[in-house]
Amino acid sequence: MFDPDEEIRRIEAAAQAARTGLEIAPGAEPRLGLVLGSGMGAVADGLNLVSGIEYARIPHFPCSTVAGHAGRLVRGTLGGVPVVAMQGRVHGYEGYTPREVVFPVRVLARLGIRQLILTNAAGSLHPDWKPGTLAVIRDHIAGLPNPLTGPNLDELGPRFFDMTEAYAPRLRALARETAAGLGMRIEEGVYYAAPGPSYETPAEIRAFRALGADLVGMSTVPEVIAARHMGLEVLAISLVTNAAAGVTQAAIDHQEVMEIGARAQTQISCWLSALAPALPAMERRSRI
Q: Which residues does the annotation mark as catalytic?
């Protein structure tokens, strides 16, 4: 049976190990966290890196098993803003429970972050959103289990909380303005989180489109739910790496997903470097 007190102890133990490994001094906690998705781990190379630690060296921290997810936590600055970045995430289809999937986000909050930017590789449900298109997520549809099912972690957040603005409107507006200033075209849409690891069928994509989805992927939503539970502000960015099944006749290949991600990393790094210093400060919650 899930024990909330034991989970808090695990989060604190992981945070302490990460704090030591990343050499985070008291009073110098980063306010911004990054979660880098499939094929985008090298975005962290655009940081002014200070330190790093492998996930495997952090107690209780789930380790990535998918190609394109390095499995490393790094600290540095982005546009002069102190940042902790995850080079790779874990997914439910790897065999992790929903609570294990969001454990890293819990740890990031324990390290002091108040704003979280998540990135992912996604399939597009729009024929004109070609591979390489970047999109800000406006809202989501959860096709994955809720990671908060079971006893609540009262120390971290309330049992029930609002998700009306899960993706902070002010951060989305800043992301669009920053992109426009760089001459980048950015879309905005609704993300459907599917369980994977198989890609979706054409019938499923038609159903997702009928529900209002613009993008489909296998991550992000559980982490957003956990982040909002803790009161973090969230911005999520999808990189379109393929057309979803049935949108075109092309088969979907993970290697292609990785290649598109690699080609887009410089552009994403420039965007995030310009965006980070423009993000407004947010007060810390004492319970975190």
A: 38, 69, 91, 93-94, 121, 218-219, 242, 254
